[in-house]
Amino acid sequence: MKTISIAEFETLVARNDWQREQDCEVLERLDRQVEEWNEENESFDLNDIPHVFGLASKTSTLDGIKITYTEGFNYDECYSDSLSTGTEGQDAIWSVESVTVVDEDCDELNAHELADYLDSDFSSINYSVLEIEQIIDVDEDSDMETFTLDIDTAPNVRFTGELVANAASSNNQAIGSGYNGQTGRWTELSLYKTKAENLSVIKLVALEGKMSVTVLAARSVKRWKRLKSFLAIAGYPKSCTLRLALMM
């Protein structure tokens, strides 16, 4: 193992011919419970949200010298904004192999001390490889418009179709005939007709700045009259028999 000075180490890490490799390993999947408001029942439901824990590393090599950075990550499945990364609680964050770096007094510097001389190229990790945002393609090859619906804690849905109608239970302002009695909470409903002539109702519920999306579907346009009545009122009628699932 060769020994170099701090100045030599600084020159070494400044070179642009380092080879970089990264690895993202999922270690565990657990369900965490989250309270969400059920507007129909006017109560809070406990929902299980699949949560992922893992370990990511980035390795930089040059002339037989290897520098490795490691951090943890976790996220809710299908929700990229929930991604959290960091090194809290880790015993080893950096490792430097095949070289010893000494200061002016010939004292050896450890990997943690050497990290102060490294730029972000040695530690930045591209988490897009995890493909946290999943999309289900419902249909393809149509002249209709393509819609992508962002659904909380579930794969997003992409389909071709046309927006037929929409309605909202409140304008989120304490004025006007559309006011539902409470700001910060409202429901929006949108009706789409797909290429396969199925009808899908998209129910968006907003509560205190958080939004959840539910997809309700009918198998054919024969239910058009029922869905039209469904959209004509503000809210979600208990008599509606559509299931909370995509049935395309």
Describe this entry's structure for a reader.
- The chain is built from three helices and 13 strands, in the order βαββββββαββββββα.
- The longest helix is centred in the C-terminal third of the chain and has 9 residues.
- The strands form three sheets. Strands 8, 9, 10, 11, 12 and 13 form a six-stranded mixed β-sheet that branches. Strands 2, 3, 4, 5 and 6 form a five-stranded antiparallel β-sheet that branches. A two-stranded parallel sheet has the order 1-7.
- It has two domains: 129 residues, no CATH class; 98 residues.
- It is mainly β and 248 residues long.
- It is elongated.
- It is 8% helix and 49% strand.
- A hairpin with a 2-residue loop joins β12 and β13.
Domain count: the total is 2
SSE arrangement, N to C? EHEEEEEEHEEEEEEH
Largest sheet: 6 strands, mixed
Estimated share of beta-strand residues: over 45%
Query: Helicity, in percent?
Result: under 10%
Kindly report how far apart the N and C termini lie. Answer: 63 Å
Overall body shape: elongated
User: Structural class, please?
Assistant: mainly beta
Low-confidence stretches: 218-248
**Quaternary state of the chains:** single chain
For the secondary structure, the number of strands is: 13
Counted by DSSP, the helix tally is 3
Radius of gyration of CA atoms, rounded to a whole number: 27 Å
Mean pLDDT: 74
